[in-house]
Amino acid sequence: MERRRFIEVVAGGLLAAPLVTAAAQPLEKMPRVGYISPGSPSDPVRLRRFEAFQQGMRELGYVEGRNLSIEPRWAGDQYDRYRALADDLVRLKVDVIVTLGGAATQAAQQTTRTIPIVMSIATDPLGSGLVASLAHPGGNITGTSMMAPDLVPKQLELLKELVPKVSEVALLWNPANPGSAAQVREAEGVARALKVRLHTLEARDPREIDRAFVAMTRQQVGALVVLADAVFINRRRQIADFAAKSRLPAVYGMSDYADVGGLIVFGASLVVMHRGAAIFVDKILKGTKPRDLPVEQPTTFELIINLKTAKAIGLTIPASLRQRADQVIE
User: Most CB atoms closer than 10 Å: which of 76, 103, 154, 190?
Assistant: First the structure.
């Protein structure tokens, strides 16, 4: 009896063992997504971008702390920090890195050729060499393009429509942004067609922005074009205030300037684009390779006119232009 009882206990233990072992198995690894922003979480615009991405992930069924971990890193207006931030995320062995803008994407690309990178709001990923083609990106990068070089001609045309007699136009650009050179080339081409002399002024940081302002004043330009760039967005109020005080009609490529008094904005809807980055992340986490995900281009564009600013600088907005606006700020 004792021997039979011993066998029953052992047999029962063996049968139960797989159940105990299965229950003790560790949970499936939680995906970890890195996120590199050019700004600071204290900036409402940058925080809004981050929240748009978070919302996009939630809409796809991801809940932070349950089945997703997001590791945000903030460059705080300094391009030279991108590489260190990317290095940090690589050390953490994140599954995907989301980058805002071409410079952040370039730094991440230089740091890793294996971890998938989803670029959001990159100005010119093809022209700057981040991808082999839009349809077939190749490598470990995909995401969304702002089509910034394609929009610059329209921005200059809007400025000429607004101020038909303008002949001297300043163009503010950041040579540290890999997508800026193509925008400058496009601007120079359309400026010649519009019979406008273009003054291209470089600015990589706030001090150089101030120096560019001095040059604009010295050159007595009649209008201003501000190219799409992360550093400029971080200093958007500084730029818009200068344009207003100098009574310079100015056109911008990113909607964030409208909130700080920018006169005219024409560009892609950035919040929509940034939320869309979540779709790329979801597909990659589910096994799709970045090289198999075509780079997407925006389909929604915004024309925003600030009538309050126009009045302050003594400018009348043509009725034809107002009628085409998606948003008019009174």
Answer: 103
How far is it, in rounded angstroms, from Cα 309 to Cα 201? 23
For residue 119, which phi and psi values (nearest 5 degrees)? -85, 140
Residue type, 283: K
Angle at 249 between CA 245 and CA 255, to 5 degrees: 100
Say how far apart CA 316 and CA 270 lie, in whole Å: 28
**Single-letter amino acid code for the residue at 80:** D
Nearest Cα residue to 35 out of 81, 104, 137: 104
**What does pTM read for this prediction?**
0.85
Query: Which residues of the chain fall short of a pLDDT of 70?
Result: 1-28
For residues 249 and 315, the answer to whether their CB atoms sit within 8 Å is yes
What pLDDT was estimated at residue 324?
A: 94
Q: Whole-angstrom Cα distance, residue 39 to residue 78?
A: 8
User: Which residues lie closer than 8 Å to 190 by C-beta, 6 or more apart?
Assistant: 152, 153, 156, 157
Residues 71 and 34: beta-carbon distance below 8 Å? yes
Tell which CATH classification among 3.40.50.2300, 3.40.50.150, 3.40.47.10, 3.30.1330.10 matches the domain 148-268+302-329: 3.40.50.2300
- Cα 269 to chain centroid, rounded: 11
Show Cβ contacts of residue 27 under 8 Å, excluding neighbours closer than 6 positions.
none
What class, spelled out in words, does domain 32-146+270-299 have in CATH? Answer: alpha beta
Q: What is each CA distance from 309 to 167, 172, 182, 200, in whole angstroms?
A: 21, 20, 30, 24
- Predicted pLDDT of residue 273: 82
